Every structure is written in C-alpha cells, then in structure tokens.
Amino acid sequence: MKFVKHSIQWAKGEVFEGVCIGITGLLVLILASLLWKYGSTENARVLVLPTLGLGILFVLMGSFMVYSNSHRQLSFQQSYDANANQFLLDEKKRVEAFQVLYPTSLSISFACFVATIAAFVWSKNPHFHAVGLALSVFGLSLLIIDYFSKERASVYYAVILQYLP
Fold it and tell me: Do the Cβ atoms of 10 and 1 come closer than 8 Å?
C-alpha cells in the first residue's frame, strides 16, 4: 500500500472523531435547552449557561476537525504526487510537532478536575458548582479525545518510520 493511503486513513479517523465531537456538542446543546425549559431548581437553572457554552465549544471543535481534515485528505494526495519523499519527511515532522499537545491537554484536564473539586469543597455557590461540572465534563472529554487521537497518531507515526529510507 502506498504511504499516502495511510495518511488519508489517519485523516479519515480524525474526521470521524470530529463528527463524534460535533454530535456530542449537539446533544449537550439539546441538554442545555431542556435544562432551560424544564429546569425548576436553582441548580438546574444555573447549569444552563455552562452547558450551553460547553455544547457550543464541542460543536466548534468537531466542525473544525471535520473541515480541516477533509481538506487535508486532498492536500495529502497532491503533496504525495508532487514529491513522495518530501511528503513523508513533512508528515514525520508534523506528527512529532503535535505530540507535545498530549501532555498539555492532560494538564488542562487535571486543572479542570482540580477546579471542579475546589468549587464543590470551598464554595456553596451553585454558579461555581455549575461551572465546575462543565469543567469536569470538558476535562473528561479531553481525556477521551486524546486517548483515541494519541493511539491513532502512534500507529501513524510507526507507519511513517517504516516507510522512511
């Protein structure tokens, strides 16, 4: 199999992940509207805005992933056809460059969980609790997203190394 097929397959995996994130965002937006319409307690009412923000963030993230990786599939083929060896080296450099993002997102997830715990331990304010809940969902989502993304990137990087002369 040509190397470019692996690249396109990696981008398709990223598109699928973006679709999943976007659908999750839509579901969270529906949840926010249900909380707004049917939420009768103070905790339910204050959860509307953080949930709405989280849903919008997920929709935007998913849309960006779908858009950028769909276009990337086309550019992969063109770059590979122009110069296969340079494409391989460029892909190796690109994959190595975004590997530093995984520990960063792990740190962000950790910070989200700490903020959630702090909101519940040191505050009785329902607004802080609602923001804390949204942050914990965001932190957990980052862990899940990166779990699959890192695996896909590791497999892709191993393929890159196999094809290098």
Answer: no
